[in-house]
Specification:
The protein is of the alpha/beta class. The chain is about 50% helix and about 20% strand.
């Protein structure tokens, strides 16, 4: 059994002014019940525009355990998690959303698994209260599709809520890629992993920051970040299209010599539409991967840090990656 002395929480924050007072109360109560733990709270402000940063400043001024990493603009949830991992100093790190849908009580179960020797302990959702049937189904289908065809080690029905050891944090921080699907990276790096199961509460304050459009983009990032299967599918589609064209060519030659040739534009339109659509689809898939190469070779940072408040000392670097 190993002992946990220093624990870091990472909370990505984007327009959560309604939630932050409740989060503060919940975290303070949780920490008060565990005085043996040396806890730091890494609050990553992802370009909030609703006053969240002002509240975080007040919180940090009143509690030296609170650190703030503030972005120059909104870079996205995965960039915020990345920044938190790069700045967290604990022996273990817990990643949580600031909306209080994931219960702090589950962290105790994660710490117990960490003490047993596990390097990664992720939260497995038994339910998703307050979400539409459509969102629940698409999330269910996405993870099973991802596991079946693209990333076989990814756990089902999980998000970014998890506890990870210092060794795993260092491994993730060493990965240079810019287009990040962080929960997939946790599976990719390996280490001993297990889960704790919990009921996910409905959001009580504020509104979701992941509408359908962002969910689709996030899912596509996850698929293309860990597999070239879509390109291989394009190759298969091209082969099938060519085979169909060859079969139709044989049929057309037979009809010609049989004297049953029918002249008309319907066949031409159908074939052109089929071939043109296949080509455009193939170009689009390949273009997605070329776009990722383009983003990587530019070597831009994952985020730009406007300022950092650490132990009541404010720092203003030009940028961080």
């Amino acid at each position: 059994m190993r002992t946990l002395n220093r624990l870091s929480f990472i909370f990505p924050v984007y327009n959560e002014i309604e939630t932050l007072p409740h989060l503060r109360a919940a975290v303070d109560e949780w920490m008060a019940g565990r005085p043996q733990l040396n806890v730091e709270l890494v609050m990553v402000n992802d370009g909030s525009r609703d006053g969240s940063i002002d509240y975080l400043r007040q919180w940090a001024a009143a509690d030296e355990r609170v650190r703030i990493i503030s972005f120059s603009r909104n870079f996205g949830h995965q960039a915020a998690v990345t920044a938190g991992l790069e700045h967290a100093r604990g022996d273990a790190v817990v990643i949580m959303d600031a909306d209080l849908q994931d219960p702090l009580s589950a962290v105790d179960l994660m710490i117990a698994k960490y003490a047993e020797g596990f390097e990664v302990v992720y939260g497995e959702r038994l339910s998703r209260e307050g979400e539409s049937a459509f969102k629940k189904f698409t999330a269910w289908a996405f993870y099973r599709l991802l596991k079946k065809f693209f990333l076989k080690d990814i756990p089902l029905d999980t998000g970014d809520f998890r506890l990870i050891s210092r060794d795993c944090v260092l491994a993730i921080n060493a990965l240079p890629e810019k287009s990040r699907f962080v929960r997939g990276l946790f599976s990719w790096v390996g280490f001993s992993q297990t889960s704790v199961r919990y009921e996910r509460d409905a959001r009580q304050f504020g509104e979701t920051k992941y509408p359908f459009r962002k969910m689709v983009a996030f899912a596509w990032t996850g698929i293309t970040s860990f597999s070239i299967l879509p390109i291989r599918m394009v190759t298969v589609m091209g082969f099938v299209a060519a085979l169909c064209s060859l079969v139709y060519l044989v049929y057309a030659i037979y009809q010609h010599f049989s004297g049953h040739t029918v002249q008309g534009w319907t066949t031409i339109v159908i074939l052109q539409t089929f071939m043109g659509g296949s080509i455009l689809f193939a170009i689009g898939i390949v273009g997605e991967y070329i776009g990722k190469i383009y983003e990587e070779v530019k070597a831009r940072p994952v985020y730009i840090k406007e300022f950092e408040i650490d132990r009541k000392i404010e720092k203003r670097p030009s940028q961080d990656s």
